[in-house]
Amino acid sequence: MSRYAIVCGGTGGHLGPGIAIAEELMERNGECLLLISDKVIDGVMLEKYDQFEYVVLPAKPLAKSIWKIFETIKSQLVSLLQCIKLVKNRKIDCIIGMGGFTNFPAVMAAFLMRKKIVLHESNRVIGKSIKLLAHLADVVFLPPDVNFASRSLKKKVSHASIPLRREMQKIDKCEARERLGLNPHRSVVTVLGGSQGANALNEWAIQHFQRLNGHNLSVCCVRGIKSDSREKIIGMSDDGNAIGNLFLPFCNDMSSLLSATDLLVCRAGAGTIAEAILFGLPMVLVPYPSAAENHQEVNATHVANEGRAIVVRQGDIDLLTNIVIECFQKNLKNFQTTPPPDSEHSAAEIIVNHIQRMIGNE
Q: Nearest 5°: phi and psi at 120?
């Protein structure tokens, strides 16, 4: 039996694909250990996955403050020693890094212990940790049509879409809305700022849900784990009918949420986009303007060019309500909603097939 450590902490965009790969490996009798960060989101997302063993690394992301830089270095060194011990004691055969600040200590431990290293990038802009560590990797999985500029690194590249968790299965729209406590016959606009929420989108939803209600649209907003508890707010349509709106701190049933949705207003993280495409959802994307290397803007532009989304910059968020209403007035007909021929669910299979061939376990 081969043993794997999957480094996937920090955001839902790293953890979700890591879980998907772990599911595929464990189905093939692989032994998996998840290495996560101490961020609250990691623990919350893993609550429903009791089949996975995980270890929390104290690694911190690079900070701008001089004093916090020393704290970052210390946390990364402590995590490196912890990972070396884990690789040795658990007899890990392969480290799989999903990107982000937790990648460095685990990948360096694998390199020092001469273990196989696999990296995966979800976004259409290659992140700093992937660029930095790619020279040490045996293979780097990048999105289709994305590549390194360096000829030597290109030889390490294999292409795969974003692996999605097996729970991501579309269900009946009315049933999904009933699960959430919404009117099963009312169109739903879902506002999603990513696994940790987005203040700009949260504020927009609070300020404009009543106007959307006036057009017979329910609003479901996932505000982020730092927000208050679940709250149902009743609004009114223009013809005097009551309309329920749901504001959640976090949703651990994304299949129901996305199945209930008619239009998704969201950030442009690669994982969120991939899930929306799988569920055939039209999107209005508001890229996070401070995203590293502007990767959300690049993600958003790519799917907009495919006809799957409209892009609204955060500086133009005042236009968002009119755009959403106009989308429904046109019956959402201007969007491409057919999933691509190669299902996103096959990505985990493609990646695991490659890994098992690489370590001679197929």
A: -135, 130
